[in-house]
Please model this.
Amino acid sequence: MTTQFYIMLAIVVYLVVVLGIGIYCSRQNKNVDDFYLGGRKLGPFVTAMSAEASDMSSWLLMGLPGVAYLSGVADAAWTAIGLAIGTYVNWLIVAKRIRIYSHVADNSITLPDFFSRRFEDDKNILMCIAAIVIIIFFIPYTASGFAACGKLFANIFEVDYVTAMLISAIVIVGYTASGGFLAASTTDFIQSIVMTVALIVVLLFGISSAGGWDAVMENAKALPGYLSLTETYSVAEQAAKPYGTLTIFSVLAWGLGYFGMPHILLRFMAIEDKEKLSISRKIATVWVVISMSVAILIGIIGYAVSQAGAIEVLEGTNSEAIIVKISDLLSTYGVFPAFLAGVILSGILASTMSTADSQLLAAASSVSQNLIRGFLKIQISEKTAMIVARISVILISVIAAFIARDPDSSVFGIVSFAWAGFGASFGPVVLFALFWRRSNRQGALAGMICGGAMVFIWKYLIAPMGGVWGIYELLPAFIVACVAIVVVSLLTAPPSERICKQFDEVNELCKK
Model:
């Protein structure tokens, strides 16, 4: 039997397992609350690992190693540092508070629900705008996941990209539409384990294939600025370019995105015992730090492997396939290595699926729960609501698959833009809603619109000017949103007595 058979066997086993979980979890969904929030029954380990697996996406096993492979440590490392800090702070100050507040605020089961109920928005304007923002940014985000799966299978089995992408999308939609949030969270937990195994195996085998650690360092040091935190290697110029303080701060701003990620915040809202969030925080932070450090190392090791002639030299967005190339090399060593290569490739698949399923649920909830039932106030039964929820998952997947039909799109590029969109649109609103008593509906609406709009303005109008303007769009957009919330809240009427009492009640509950 060929090595491809054993690779395929490992992947098929993995896909059958996740589909089985989806079918099993479908029996646990009694109503829409269960479908979108799992009945708030997640344990601390599943909460931690599913949150981080859904966060990391294919960016961890494709985007981050690809950036390190091409330009060295600086860009990848500062991004990882920002994300590590953001992860810890988000778990530390937001997790428990939003778990309590979302329950107190009429048992909100989605982020748009929480915004409207927190600010007594009877017309559900906040809910509508938030739902639209989620759809705008999550559809291309989901498309990037489908694209990553398509690239993976097209590279391994030399099949048509679009066909490979569509098969992957069908599997993801299958278990998500059937099992909902509980299936997504359970599979995310398993997927985080598979991702971890993949990272470790690739790291060790990559060092061996490069000729040892000394060879890895020798190749990296040969490129100017490659191992520096204040310089970056330019492939075009084959020289070091300065990585300035402003650039560092803008890249660290990746960490701000955590405060506005709907699929991560939902995990906080869904944990069964809020007192166990401290356990989840430790697990999540340690996993994120280790996994991102290993991913960056793999990029550097991958460069040494290509210089040793074991794999081809990768250019441009092809660098995102570095783990795929290393696993292909591993598969040539026999039956067990071939099966292990399949596990590694399943890890890449896992990193993509763990994010795509969460994004699909968040986007679907925006359509069925927030727009149809919340904003339009269309009264439907629980059974009909479940059908609408599943149809929404399928329709959004079709649109995402259509966007993902281009095989040349960059996973890192799409993810970074969508991350900025959520971070700026929702992050400031979440923080002020949780921690500032004086914030009101008008301020939240202004912050959401200004933050989201500034992401587009900075990305396409200001950043192209270059120089000091060429920074990551999340930082300026986040600041603009914060200013908008404060200014508009102070210029308009203060929140009602009921809102203030509710805020004080949450304060007291958080102290216990």
Summary: Strands lie at 231-234, 239-242. The two ends are 61 Å apart (CA to CA).
